[in-house]
């Protein structure tokens, strides 16, 4: 028996092909575990707000010094939440002197979007 990879038609992006859309095909165990890690990171209101603040920032990146005052949490707690977002592959960062700057990783957001998007049918458009 040959082990050929199932190709989902209509998805040219390599990252989208790794995780088919929710209504396109069922996920295998590895895909489900990988996506669950990302969704788990987004399952906390603080992390969801942090991601939103970073993604919506003009210029595409934000200093941690601009994120911390928006929350009634200590700086180490904010850093912990940012670390979890980084581990999930949603954001990345770079230290510049004293401060750390964060930005979103569009391929991960695109993967989530492709997974959650339902295909448009002729009936839905009518």
Would you kindly provide a written description of the structure presented here, covering whatever features stand out?
The chain is mostly helical and 126 residues long. 49% of the residues lie in helices and 11% in strands. The protein contains 7 helices and 3 strands; from the N terminus they run αααβααββαα. It has helices at 14-18, 29-42, 45-55, 64-67, 75-87, 106-116, 122-125; strands at residues 62-63, 91-96, 99-104. Strands 1-3-2 form a 3-stranded antiparallel sheet. Helix 3 crosses helix 5. The longest helix has 14 residues, at 29-42. The N and C termini lie far apart (43 Å).
Quick rundown:
With 126 residues, this protein is mainly alpha-helical.
Q: In terms of topology, how is this protein built?
A:
Blueprint (H helix, E strand, L loop, with lengths): L13 H5 L10 H14 L2 H11 L6 E2 H4 L7 H13 L3 E6 L2 E6 L1 H11 L5 H4 L1
Keywords summarizing the entry:
126 residues; mainly alpha; 7 helices; 49% helix; elongated; disordered N terminus
Unreliable stretches (pLDDT < 50, length at least 5) are 1-17
What is the rounded Rg?
18 Å
Structural class: mainly alpha
Major β-sheet profile: 3 strands, antiparallel
- Beginning-to-end CA distance, first to last residue: 43 Å
Strand-residue proportion: 5-15%
- Given the structure, what is the number of helices? 7
State the helicity in percent bands.
Answer: 40-55%
Overall form: elongated
Oligomer: single chain
Arrangement of strands in the largest sheet: 1-3-2
